[in-house]
Amino acid sequence: MAGYIARRLLQAIPVLLGTTFLIYFMVFAMPGDPVVALFGDKTPPPQVLEAVRERYNLDQPFIVQYLLFLAGIFQGDFGVSFSGQPVSEILAETFPVTLRLAILAVLIEMVFGIAIGLVSGLRKGGIFDASFLVVSLILISLPVFVVAFVAQYVFGIQLGWFRTTVGPGAPIQDLILPAIVLATISFAQIVRLTRASVIDTGGQDFVRTAASKGLSRRRIVPVHILRNSLIPVVTYLAVDFGVLMVGATVTEGIFNVPGVGRTLYQAIIRGEGPTVVSFVTVMVLIYLVINLLVDLLYAVLDPRIRYAK
Amino acid sequence: MKIKRIGVAAIALAAAGALTLAGCSSSNEPTAPAGDSTAIITTNGSEPQNPLIPTNTNETGGGKILDSIFAGLVYYDGEGAPHNDMAESIETDDAQTYTITIKDGQTFTNGEDVTAESFVKAWNYGAALDNAQLSSYFFDSIEGFSYDENVDELSGLEVVDDKTFTVTLKQPESDFPLRLGYSAFFPLPEAAWEDLDAFGENPIGNGPYMLDGEGAWKHNERIDLVVNEDYQGDRQAVNGGLSIIFYATQDAAYADLQGGNLDVLDAIPDSALSTFQDEFGDRSVTQGAAIFQSFVVPDRLAHFGGEEGKLRRAAISHAINREEVTDVIFSGTRTPAHDFTSPVIDGYSEDIPGSEVLEYDPELAKELWAEADAISPWEGSFQIGYNADGGHQGWVDAVTNQIKNELGIDASGAPYPTFAEFRTAITDRAIETGFRTGWQADYPSLSNFLGPIYVTGAGSNDGDYSNPEFDALINEGLSETEVEAGIEKFQQAQEILFEDLPAIPLWYSTVNGAWGEQVENVQFGWNSVPLYYEVTKSE
């Protein structure tokens, strides 16, 4: 087990180097000069442009800029944003916010999605199943910004149940509404996924065996059916958590959540290379770790899967 | 419900010969505030792009904060008229050498006195090329300034005594005192020089507000300001402080205003432009802004040089129905242009001779185009370049369609994906089409709309326009010590622009704002930023 984890972590190093290089190159190759854009519609004298470029090492060739950046990272220095804030500090401020939002959203979609999916699967073809089929189809087809704007207008402005946007310090109660919005989309997927998986497992021989042994339904459903149905659902949830962790740009924008998505979006717009690459580096790391955790979780859910070496 | 303010600001002028910015009268003092003097006003903003250092801030996100926490030599009232803030007097005999005296007893919030040194050191730092300050070019008219080598101390700045310094300019510029309210000219305390990076994070100012302790700037989230009790100028705050919340989208800010979480909003999102006046009624405002929009068709493009170019530009200008575009595309939130400046600026006029070229007249347009065709027949297509990330597509398509229909030529927009790409193409002169331009005044003066854009070789002269007659008139206007005489020269200079059309004027922007029930006395300044210190809030 430990060997397996070590091997996976070692594999992460070339992946990280490759992605940072690619991202750095893409930011560098973005057409247009970020320094020119700093001046808006006004054109400063060329000497001023040159001086500002020098200050941010933007006058260096690409490979030098990249190596400078890489050298910095190994010393724990992620660079500085145009506003003079260390990128490491921006990372430390935004990731916890997004983490809270992502955990909330995943919790909501997990609890409701699995519960409703399970009931739908067990009562296949019933009223409950049919009505949630319709609901989930509607939710899947709605773009997230529609859900977000409607939720903000109805629950924030009209009913006043939630703050319209996220307040200072991004407290949990303000994050509930954006988390529900984020959860709605995946919630529908999870309902469909759980339902299909439960129906599939419910028809397996070992479930019939358990029933003929005289086990109660209260034991068969959670232990035999649900547990064995969860593998695809867990994979989906983990992927979704990863997606949420790297930022839900649209939703974070609408609810003004000071998280990863919003910050990264602004950094891209401003052409702040160091900020963009540092964010992406951390995102890649998160993805790698979550994928590793999911693989380990499979073994827990299904004892037949073992990581021997 | 449309308040359009025509510039009525008058610059206080002493007797002929001496140009003095007199101290503001006490009539400007706010009447007894009705609101709670401890209430915090919340308003929208955006994360400052740069550290909060006056000479390194050139965008509104940071500018709004700096204007609140610093006080310059002068400040601008709601009409854009300058009044002394830190300055006791600003005197000159020739519009070239200025003697500036600072009021006694003015302090920074760390207790330091505001002295002549506070200004001179800050300006020298801002001007030095090695410091790569974004606003360095604001100092380029001061003697000693150089773009070619680093100059640590401008020879034109001289400290006379603790409270007095002199400024010598390279040439007479009568509107120099008008500029002194712009953030680049703010003073800095000695404490700033110990560690300027740290200072930019927690700036110490001398304005009506100050940061609410260390770390009041919560990046990407908000900045909290409280009243600076030691500030003695006219911009005394009647509320308890200011929380500027950084929004990524204007829609989020608007939702917060509707939801009662925001007091004052100074930018209405496009999606609410047609409804916000119904919703907020007399708690909303639409007023002129010091922003001029146009597009440039450079001389160097085929068929746009010389006499032929003049005719074609005039034809294109006559082919555009500005009224229709501002009504249909912008729901009246732009007003058709009548000159090259802005209605909020002192000296603005709608009837400058030659401004008829801005009238929609399809017959005349066709005629002029035909005359140009007689010189050299038109071929190819006419395009206006724009950045696709700035909401410009609507009007560019409308305008090019009008040109296409009226002149019977092929015309279309030429989008660039990002602003950076668009501006780089313009700066490198790589753009081979017409292109949109905009200008927001840094200080309320006609010359600020003309000099930096159309004078030969000027920084923002993106179309490489050059006309010695125009240059001469601008120079004459700047050397006039009488403001009225200067305005006359600038208007004459505009007559030349109407003939040459180095840029084809389109319209002026307006600022659209709204505020909540709990606040009163909301007034927007000449630069479209609310005068926060006057806002009262009841709780």
TrEMBL record, chain A:
One Pfam family cited in the UniProt record for this chain: BPD_transp_1_N
Keyword Transmembrane in annotation: yes
Membrane topology, as annotated: Multi-pass membrane protein
CDD domains, A to Z: TM_PBP2
Extent of the signal sequence: none
Any one GO CC term of the record: plasma membrane
Domain of life: Bacteria
Gene3D superfamilies for this protein: MetI-like
SUPFAM superfamilies, sorted: MetI-like
Compartment(s): Cell membrane
Protein name: ABC transporter permease subunit
Residue span(s) of domain ABC transmembrane type-1: 95-298
Classification via InterPro entries: BPD_transp_1_N, MetI-like, MetI-like_sf
Keyword Flavoprotein carried by entry: no
Annotated transmembrane regions: 12-30, 101-120, 132-155, 175-194, 233-255, 275-301
Family: Belongs to the binding-protein-dependent transport system permease family.
BP terms from Gene Ontology: transmembrane transport
Keywords: Cell membrane, Membrane, Transmembrane, Transmembrane helix, Transport
TrEMBL record, chain B:
Protein name: ABC transporter substrate-binding protein
CDD domains reported for this sequence: PBP2_NikA_DppA_OppA_like
Source organism: Agromyces luteolus
InterPro entries per record: Peptide/Ni-bd, SBP_5, SBP_5_dom
Coiled coil: none
Signal peptide feature range: 1-27
GO terms (BP aspect): peptide transport
A Gene Ontology term for the protein's cellular component: periplasmic space
Organism lineage: Bacteria, Bacillati, Actinomycetota, Actinomycetes, Micrococcales
This protein's UniProt keywords: Signal
Keyword Signal: yes
GO molecular function: peptide transmembrane transporter activity
Alphabetical list of Pfam families matching this protein: SBP_bac_5
Domain Solute-binding protein family: 82-459
